[in-house]
């Protein structure tokens, strides 16, 4: 619906997939495949991150099917950026009066989890990196005041 005139064929192809007209096997267009095995290097090596603007980032994206791979890619993109990396750690704790729960869910285990839609235990950032902030309804989460 919003495709440019030059992208009408690609839009029609996507609609065919959505309507299951393409069969059980889908062949991606050649532009969807990287020309090198290192897609991060291919997409971002020509950018000067110390003075990047949004127009330079427009049209550059790496799609992945899981959060684990997404974090690997994010960390690799951070390597291209100048400056010092800052690591922000989450606070994980079990709110239970049962002391057995503390043994069942030790802090190390909680720190290894990255639930869908939430940042990892260790969030690595640099000045100038782009982040997405999503605000979730407060009723779904408990807030602890120290």
Explained architecture:
This is DNA helicase Pif1-like 2B domain-containing protein. It comes from Araneus ventricosus (Orbweaver spider). Residues 108-135 form the DNA helicase Pif1-like 2B domain. InterPro entries: Pif1-like_2B_dom (IPR049163). The chain is mainly alpha-helical. It folds into two domains: 1-33, no CATH class; 35-144, no CATH class. The protein contains six helices and two strands; from the N terminus they run ααααβααβ. It has helices spanning 8-18, 39-44, 54-57, 67-80, 99-104, 107-112, and strands at residues 86-89, 122-125. It has a two-stranded antiparallel ribbon. The radius of gyration is 21 Å and the shape is extended.
Radius of gyration: 21 Å
Kindly estimate the percentage of residues that lie in beta strands according to DSSP: 5-15%
Q: What is the averaged pLDDT score?
A: 76
- State the helix count: 6
The first-to-last residue Cα distance is 51 Å
Low-confidence stretches: 142-146
Shape: extended
Q: Trace the largest sheet across and list its strands.
A: 1-2
User: Biggest sheet, in brief?
Assistant: 2 strands, antiparallel
Structural class by sheet pairing and helices: mainly alpha
Protein name: DNA helicase Pif1-like 2B domain-containing protein
InterPro entries: Pif1-like_2B_dom
Domain DNA helicase Pif1-like 2B: 108-135
């Amino acid at each position: 619906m919003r495709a440019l005139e030059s992208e009408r064929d690609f839009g029609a192809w996507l609609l065919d997939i959505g309507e299951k007209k393409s069969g059980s096997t889908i062949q991606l267009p050649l532009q969807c495949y990287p020309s090198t095995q290192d897609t991060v290097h291919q997409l971002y090596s020509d950018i000067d991150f110390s003075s990047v603007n949004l127009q330079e980032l427009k049209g550059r994206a790496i799609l992945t099917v899981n959060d684990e791979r997404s974090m690997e890619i994010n960390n690799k993109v951070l390597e291209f950026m100048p400056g010092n990396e800052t690591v922000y750690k989450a606070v994980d704790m079990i709110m239970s009066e049962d002391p057995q729960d503390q043994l069942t869910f030790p802090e190390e285990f909680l720190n290894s989890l990255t639930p869908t839609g939430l940042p990892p235990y260790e969030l690595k950032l640099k000045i100038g990196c782009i982040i997405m902030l999503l605000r979730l309804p407060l009723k779904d989460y408990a807030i602890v005041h120290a």
